[in-house]
Amino acid sequence: MIVDPTGTDAASRSRSLARVGARGLGGSMLGALLVPAYVLAVVAAPLTSRPTRTVVGWEARRLTWVDGARRPDAPRGGQALGFVGVRAGLGLLAGAVLCLIALGLVVACSVVVGATTGGPVSAFDAEPGQVSFATIGWFVLPGVVLLFLAGSGLAGIARLDVAAWQTFARPGADELEATVSRLTVTLADVVTAVDAERRRIERDIHDGVQQRVVALSILLARADRATDLAESQELRRRARAETQHVLDDLRDVSWRIHPTALERDGLGVALEALRDRTSLPVDLRVPTTARFPASVEAAAYFVVSEAITNVMKHAAASTATVSVDDDDGLLRVVVEDDGVGGADPSGPGLSGIAARVAAADGAFHLTSPRGGPTTLEVDLPCA
User: Which comes out higher in pLDDT, residue 328 or 150?
Assistant: First the structure.
């Protein structure tokens, strides 16, 4: 049997167009139904920006469902409010077109039923039996043309939806300038933080692993020179124990760099392992088991690891709490402790956290009054 690839591709394209058209119609209906939410977001904008962010998130998912294209860049600030206002107008327009289509279908059905049963047709102001199929035929062509125009209008509104998103998601000149300035500062901070981390790793290896390796070599040399069998066996036993200490130190250093469990099992499992390896009691709250982009999980793990290290070194705390949650496209990390407070954001630990968060385009907030408690909040965008 010979298969015509051209025909197969044409059929596939037809099904794809039909699916996109059906989803476009469904998306237009959904957009019309969400008009009250758009209006509410615009009205509530002077008080809080949360409704605006929520509506923008809905729109991103709705448009992605319609055409299948992901939209990682979303309108922000005043542009988000402008987008919601434009989308409210487009939703009202789509609702009006859908109402006209529904009205036309109702009229068409009533006319056909009246002509078939001989009943009255209110659309023509006709008595029972006065409207025939021949009379209806004169209105078929105009009705089809009007239906085509209404469908074209919905398609145009769908294209305007996409165009509005692209227009308002595009950053303005001021925002681009601020972003460039922020990234320039962030780059310098990241380089400084990386250098500090490199020096810390070098110090850990020199003061920990290297010293143990030297001790191990001395034990093995003494075991080789020992003439007494019992003494030689004891030295070799101590050498095996020292080997285990070397492996433990290497494992600790590698965990501080990048734990393998983070890539294999996700952020929750990696944080559980970090809690189990920490002497300070940590209450870990990770209600979500969802996976996030690797860069986001790595940044979140670094934030928690460095924050817990700072708590153990400087806060004199008895307990700490780590909360991780997915909040409308943001991975929110909160680290709290009951220590003495007074944390300095310009210190090497906290400034390194701030630089890592800024490099991920996240938000960093620290509250640490004298006497405590200290609360560190970080929001990392997942898109």
Answer: 150
Is 0.70 topped by the overall pTM? no
Taking residues 301-318, report their average pLDDT.
Answer: 87
What pLDDT, in 10s, does the model give residues 25-41?
A: 666 677 777 778 777 77
User: How far is it, in rounded angstroms, from Cα 369 to Cα 281?
Assistant: 22
Q: CA-to-CA distance for 189 and 135, rounded, in angstroms?
A: 79
Q: What SS3 state is found at 119? A: coil
For the beta carbon of residue 4, count every other beta carbon within 10 angstroms: 9
Residue-by-residue DSSP string for 275-325: HHT-SS-EEEE--------HHHHHHHHHHHHHHHHHIIIII--S-EEEEEE
Q: What is the per-residue pLDDT across 91-143, written as a single tens digit (0 to 9) for each? A: 888 888 888 888 888 777 776 766 666 655 555 555 554 555 556 666 677 77
Q: How far apart are CA 130 and CA 108, in angstroms?
A: 16
Which residue's entry shows tokens 């709250």? 285
d(CA 297, CA 266): 8
Q: Is 327 helix (H, G, I), strand (E, B) or coil?
A: strand
- The pair phi, psi for residue 48, each rounded to 5°, is -155, 145
CB-count exposure of residue 299 (10 Å: 0-12, 13-18, 19+): buried
Q: How far is C-alpha 1 from the chain's CA centre?
A: 49
User: What's at 76, amino acid-wise?
Assistant: R
CA Rg value for the chain: 33
Q: What average pLDDT score do residues 221-250 get?
A: 82
DSSP assignment string, 79-97: HHHHHHHHHHHHHHHHHHH
